[in-house]
Amino acid sequence: MVVEVVSQGKPVATFSYTYGQPFNSLLFILVLLAGGIGASLHALRSLYWYTGNRKAVESWLLMYLLLPWTGALMATVFYLIISAGLMSPEQASNPLIAVGIAVLVGMFSREAGQKLEYIADALFTRASNGSDAGKDSQATLQVVAVDPPAGKTAGGDKVTVKGIGFSGQPTVLFDNAEAQSVALTSPTLLTVVTPPHAAGAVDVTVKMAATSAKAKKAFTYVEESVSPAEGPKEGGNTVTITGTGLAADATVTFGGAQSQEVHVESATSLTAKVPQHAPGKVDVVVTSGGKVVLTLKDGYLYKDAS
Q: 133-222 sits in which CATH class?
């Protein structure tokens, strides 16, 4: 773009500005639509599952109606971030790449939101002020959070430790128990396998060379259990199951017999009505999101009253 300043019919100054990547309004609209379509697919899949399992709740209708709009807006945010420089101009303007990412963002809005949270943590979390500029690496090391924030006492759960200033070969401690494995994903993310530990909230510490950082009570160990752990073979009694990864769509089986009444109280606790079953010990299995999140071997005993 060229701007020419004219005085008394004569040009006295000329200003020029060269635009970078032109704004593609059609692609912007396609991203909006693709995000909405992806979110609609997610809503229909969820509604299909809950309706088929007779768990649909009328109050969720508004949520399903809003999901396409949420997906469209989330896809737009990702498109703007990508266009701002995370991809080359040629890639960012490629409709197949942009629309494909938009559909995925719409279908997996929750996961996309977590990625945005990671980016925000890296950009906006303020480092601690150090008294000595020569100790800058120690001042900037921080542990922000652990995701997910809970796991089983037996350990073996893969979690993400979020923070600032990660490098080299860090060591991660859950209280005084060292993580089974630590992988440096980025300067703000560590992928960690939790060690065994007694139930309760623990501090998470990251150690690097001569410095360390701690997040207090950042992770909670949960004892997997069924209480009470026995009942009549006729079933009908209610038990409380504690574990991790429990969600609203959780289903519970006792020796293969499915409970017809499950209420999820939190991500670590639910109640279930015990179905009828032959006497003896059975496995208790909790499934959520299409995968098994909890298995209690011989976790419940059916008793014969006779």
A: mainly beta
pLDDT per residue over 149-163, tens digit each? Answer: 999 999 999 999 999
Domain boundaries, the chain: 25-124, 133-222, 225-303
Domain spanning 225-303: which CATH class is it, in words?
Answer: mainly beta
Phi-psi region of 285 (alpha: psi -120 to 50; beta: other; left: phi over 0): beta
> Is the distance from CB of 282 to CB of 233 less than 8 angstroms?
no
Q: How far is CA 101 from CA 63, 68, 172, in A?
A: 23, 15, 34
- Give residue-wise pLDDT tens across range 184-203: 999 999 999 999 999 999 99
Token pair 């752990």 is found at: 229
Name the residue among 249, 268, 244 with its Cα closest to residue 42. 249
CA 262 to chain centre: 23
Band the pLDDT of 105: cuts 50, 70, 90.
Answer: confident
264-292 burial: b if 16+ Cβ within 10 Å, else e: beebbebebebbebeeeebebbbbbeeee
Joined tokens for residue 239: 């038990």
Indicate the DSSP class of residue 85. I
Running DSSP on this structure, what letter comes out for residue 109? H
